């Protein structure tokens, strides 16, 4: 079960049963001419091994920033990230980065930018294999790469294609395969299944669930799709304006949401017979504190 | 209004000379003000279909068949006429906003460029209008966003910048390639409503690529299902939902994850 | 695999087809011209009717004819043969310049782009200082110190070209370095040097190549100018720039063959390289705004 949101006033304690913990994370971006954007404001949560934490929320609410801080790509202004009992520091040495990358991998929201456009998709996966398993031979790497491709529903021909010659969903799946190649224990997925049609999406979600049972993989899963949250996650964090507005076990948050924003989110998800509406957010004006 | 007749696309890899068939003779028609939802398997050729309509398919492509917009053969247009048709009649919301935004320019420049080219309006007006447009797609800090570079914005913000750019051109045909995948469901609902409204107000036609069947059904008059480069089924959302003809369509309907477990 | 379907002969035509698309018909003509010049240079001993120094003063200023297709110079040497032999030093100089420039500029640019921050601004400052010196002045200075020779002149010019090229390459490399995939690779704990060579370098390679092509023409003209001033290749070596200058007095006496032939050789070569560079990436790619 999820550990739930910890009491705001409790002192951070590193507990070995937690796979991912973050405490008091804040981040403000400086935009020049004195303007700033507060992307994160005091975010706390902890999940255990083999759990899946979904992060949902408004566009621009800081989900990607949170993910980047968790994997050590972005510096928090304040707060701590602890993965498997090790504190994550931004800009650590190359050795630390290598160790950390065995621990945690990230799938980026922009699948195009996360590939070298001159390198075939298979080579991108191969590079990760080469970095993490130097003892592996060329052949072994190739067959491992093809196995990963097959796992995400891609074929051999896609391995030889340049990123530009792949569809949006195919690129996303290569990105997932690349992250899995390092055999991490924690995966951070930023909108990693958003460009997949439902049948391929089901296959990928199935794969993630299987790995979780087999290897005890822990996921931080950013998504906009609440039905996906229902499908894979144990706990969910609802974010807005850089804050957590509601957090807890999935069934609790989705079935009996407490915060008006969570309710609004659930109400605006498409379903049979649903019609899009304008000015939905204005409904929140009165409700907000 | 738009007629696609037996559209074929094959791409030759310049290095290996390998030919891949991407689209295999698809036909469809679109009336003025009609919205067609394009759903289907990842890699089935939805984005490529849109690129063929715009005439921006990748190098090494050979295209067969006819594409007509209001009686004009789109693929035969050249030079100034082609440029004008693209600028005034067509607009694309690309699947990946990064592919259309210049990383070294503030996004405001992108919006205003499109606008003053299509309508040659003064700078200050263009700026005001961009700001309004961004607010209409739910971006509250529109001033900040206009001044930001693409890497300073979130995925959903970028996607809305591109949507705002496409709407501002007031096209006759809007090609929307998964325009709301990076948006939270609330913003998605608002943006979908705006697209719907524009379509009704200005008799704009739209091809709306999506993975979300419920969303596509809500926004579109008809749905077309693609697989392996072929249009396997086309019909109203009710027909598709209640009586799917093709096996793949049935698979799609069943694979849909459910938000509420009790949903049928 | 489908690869086996491709015949080797068709590979060449595929490459030629791609080059044609990139360079256009005129560009292909330029490529052919350059190929012919390079071949001539390599095969000079077989092609040239006479040696570069062969001839007696008795035969001076012979008009073009059957024995001497382009006539002879003031020392009775065959002009055609000297143009053919002279291609060696005339092409070697610019080659040294562009290779040295490319290596130095790329190294500086990639270092600056990778480390950024203080390293970047320090290197930028150094380039600014270098930039302030006119190329020719720099070359004359070096020659004053090390004595006139092709190598001195070429190296000095190369140093003068580095700031232009380094800036262009740096800006492209910087854009590449900030792409998310580099962050992703860094996150894997891959060495910065490996990332730079494996990912950034191939992506700035087109800029490097374009710069080299365009710089070749400039270097050729400037080296010819130095030879003309007596600061580069020394007589009696055959060199196009030198031939233009030593043909000067003959020119005044009404024997233009030598200067015209060598001058034409320079113009054709420079134009061919210039056009290809233009097609590859335009003038801006070489960092020149003149
Ligand atoms: N490098 C940066 N410089 C300045 N501002 C930034 C930067 N990165 C992010 N921001 C700002 O921080 C806020 C949060 O961005 P973030 O990408 O984390 O949002 P998100 O929740 O992932 O949104 P989406 O769902 O749209 O992807 C946004 O307002 C964004 O403009
Ligand atoms: N430049 C190219 N060269 C060769 N094949 C290509 C090229 N671009 C795309 N393809 C192939 O064309 C097929 C269709 O791609 P397209 O982008 O239209 O798919 P899609 O239906 O939009 O998928 P998605 O939902 O994943 O975005 C894919 O299998 C892809 O691999
Ligand atoms: Mg994001
Ligand atoms: Mg697509």
Can you walk me through this structure?
The complex is a heterotrimer of chains A (289), B (264) and C (290). Chain A is of the alpha/beta class. Chain A has ten helices and ten strands. Chain A has one domain: Rossmann fold (3-Layer(aba) Sandwich). Chain A is globular and about 60 Å long. In chain B, the strands form two sheets. Chain B has a six-stranded mixed sheet, with helices on both faces. Chain B is built from ten helices and ten strands. Chain C has a single domain (78-284), classed as MetI-like fold, CATH 1.10.3720.10. Chain C has helices at 8-42, 44-47, 79-115, 117-132, 135-146, 150-177, 180-187, 192-228, 240-246, 248-252, 257-285. In chain C, helix 3 packs antiparallel against helix 8. The model of chain C is unreliable at 1-6 and 283-290 (pLDDT under 50). The site of one magnesium ion has 4 residues of chain A, from helix 1. Chain B: GO terms for molecular function: ATP binding; ATP hydrolysis activity. Chain B: This is ABC transporter ATP-binding protein.
The assigned CATH architecture of chain A is 3-Layer(aba) Sandwich
Separation of the first and last Cα atoms of chain B: 37 Å
CATH topology of the domain at 1-89 and 207-257 in chain B: Rossmann fold
**From the structure provided, what is the oligomeric state, counting identical versus distinct chains?**
heterotrimer
Helix and strand string of chain B, N-terminal first? Answer: EEEHEEHEHHHHEHEHEEHH
Which superfamily, in CATH terms, is the homologous superfamily of the domain at 1-89 and 207-257 in chain B? P-loop containing nucleotide triphosphate hydrolases
What is the CATH-assigned architecture of the domain at 1-89 and 207-257 in chain B?
A: 3-Layer(aba) Sandwich
Which structural class should the secondary elements of chain A be placed in? alpha/beta
Would you identify the regions of chain B where 5 or more consecutive residues have pLDDT less than 50?
none
Name the biggest interface.
A-B, 61 and 64 residues
Question: What's the CATH class of chain A, please?
Answer: Alpha Beta
Percent strand of chain A? 15-25%
Q: Look up the CATH topology of chain A.
A: Rossmann fold
Q: In percent, how helical is the residue content of chain B?
A: 40-55%
CATH H-level superfamily title of chain A: P-loop containing nucleotide triphosphate hydrolases
List the bound ligands.
adenosine-5'-triphosphate, magnesium ion
Approximately how much helix is present in the residues of chain A?
Answer: 25-40%
Total DSSP E strands of chain B: 10
Number of helices of chain A: 10
Strands in their spatial order, largest beta sheet of chain A: 6-7-8-3-9-10
Q: List how many beta strands of chain A DSSP finds.
A: 10
């Amino acid at each position: 079960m999820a550990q739930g949101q910890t009491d705001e006033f409790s002192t951070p304690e590193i507990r070995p049963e937690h796979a991912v913990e973050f405490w008091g994370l804040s981040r403000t971006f400086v935009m020049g001419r004195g303007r700033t954007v507060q992307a994160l404001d005091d975010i706390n949560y902890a999940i255990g091994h083999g759990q899946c934490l979904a992060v949902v929320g408004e566009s621009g609410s800081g989900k990607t920033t949170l993910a980047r801080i968790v994997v050590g790509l972005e510096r928090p202004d304040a707060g701590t990230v602890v993965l498997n009992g090790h504190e994550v520091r931004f800009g650590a040495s190359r050795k630390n980065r290598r160790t950390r990358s065995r621990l945690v991998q990230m799938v980026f929201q922009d699948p195009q930018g996360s590939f070298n456009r001159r390198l075939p998709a298979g080579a991108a996966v191969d590079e990760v294999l080469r970095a993490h398993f130097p003892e592996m031979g060329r052949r072994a790497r190739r067959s491992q790469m093809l196995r990963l491709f097959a796992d995400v529903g891609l074929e051999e021909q896609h391995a030889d294609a340049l990123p530009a010659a792949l569809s949006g969903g195919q690129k996303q799946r290569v990105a997932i395969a690349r992250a899995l190649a390092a055999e991490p224990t924690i995966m951070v997925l930023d909108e990693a299944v958003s460009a997949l049609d439902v049948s391929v999406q089901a296959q990928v979600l199935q794969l993630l669930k299987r790995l979780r049972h087999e290897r005890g993989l822990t996921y931080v899963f950013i998504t906009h799709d609440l039905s996906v949250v229902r499908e894979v996650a144990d706990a969910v964090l609802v974010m807005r304006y850089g804050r957590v507005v509601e957090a807890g076990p999935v069934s609790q948050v989705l079935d009996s949401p407490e915060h008006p924003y969570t309710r609004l989110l659930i109400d605006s998800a498409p379903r049979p017979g649903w019609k899009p509406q304008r000015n939905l957010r204005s409904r929140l004006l009165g409700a907000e504190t | 209004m738009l007629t696609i007749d037996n559209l074929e696309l094959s791409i030759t890899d310049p290095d290996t000379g390998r030919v891949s068939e991407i689209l295999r003779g698809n036909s469809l028609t679109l009336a003025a003000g009609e919205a067609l939802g394009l759903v289907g398997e990842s890699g089935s050729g939805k984005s490529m279909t849109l690129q063929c309509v715009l005439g921006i398919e990748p190098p090494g492509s050979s295209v067969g068949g006819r594409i007509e917009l209001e009686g004009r053969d789109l693929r035969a247009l050249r030079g100034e006429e082609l440029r004008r048709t693209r600028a005034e009649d067509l607009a694309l919301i690309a699947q990946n906003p990064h592919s259309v935004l210049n990383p070294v320019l503030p996004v405001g420049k992108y919006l205003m460029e499109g606008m003053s080219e299509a309508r040659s309006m003064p700078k200050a007006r263009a700026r005001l209008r961009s700001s309004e447009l961004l607010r209409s797609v739910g971006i509250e800090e529109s001033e900040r966003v206009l001044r930001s570079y693409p890497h300073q914005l979130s995925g959903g913000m970028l996607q809305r910048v591109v949507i705002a750019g496409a709407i501002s051109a007031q096209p006759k045909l809007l090609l929307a390639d998964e325009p709301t995948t990076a948006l939270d469901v609330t913003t998605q609902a608002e943006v979908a409503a705006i697209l719907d409204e524009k379509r009704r107000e200005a008799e704009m036609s739209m091809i709306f690529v999506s993975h979300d069947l419920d969303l596509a059904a809500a926004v579109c008059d008809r749905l077309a299902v693609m697989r392996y480069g072929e249009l396997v089924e086309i019909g109203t959302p009710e027909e598709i939902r209640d009586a799917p003809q093709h096996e793949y369509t049935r698979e799609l309907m069943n694979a849909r994850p459910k938000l509420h477990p009790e949903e049928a | 695999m489908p690869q086996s379907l491709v015949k080797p002969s068709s590979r060449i035509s595929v490459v030629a087809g791609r080059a044609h698309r990139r360079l256009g018909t005129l560009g292909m003509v330029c490529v052919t011209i350059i190929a012919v010049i390079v071949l001539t240079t390599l095969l000079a001993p077989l092609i040239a009717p006479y040696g570069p120094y062969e001839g007696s003063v008795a035969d001076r200023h012979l008009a073009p004819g059957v024995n001497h297709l382009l006539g002879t110079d003031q020392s009775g040497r065959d002009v055609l043969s000297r143009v053919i032999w002279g291609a060696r030093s005339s092409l070697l100089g610019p080659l040294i310049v562009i290779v040295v420039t490319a290596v130095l500029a790329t190294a500086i640019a990639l270092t600056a782009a990778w480390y950024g921050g203080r390293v970047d601004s320090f290197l930028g400052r150094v380039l600014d200082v270098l930039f302030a010196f006119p190329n020719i002045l720099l070359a004359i200075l070096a020659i004053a110190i090390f004595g006139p020779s092709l190598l001195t002149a070429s190296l000095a010019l190369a140093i003068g070209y580095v700031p232009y090229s380094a800036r262009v390459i740096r800006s492209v490399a910087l854009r590449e370095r900030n792409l998310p995939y580099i962050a992703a690779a860094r996150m894997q704990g891959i060495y910065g040097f490996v990332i730079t060579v494996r990912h950034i370098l191939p992506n700035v390679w087109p800029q490097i190549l374009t710069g080299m092509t365009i710089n070749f023409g400039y270097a050729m003209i400037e080296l010819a100018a130095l030879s003309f001033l007596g600061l580069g290749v020394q007589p009696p070596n055959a060199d196009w720039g030198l031939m233009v200058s030593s043909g000067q007095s003959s020119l005044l006496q009404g024997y233009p063959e030598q200067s015209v032939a060598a001058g034409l050789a320079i113009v054709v070569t420079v134009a061919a390289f210039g056009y290809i560079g233009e097609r590859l990436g335009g003038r801006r790619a070489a960092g020149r705004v003149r």
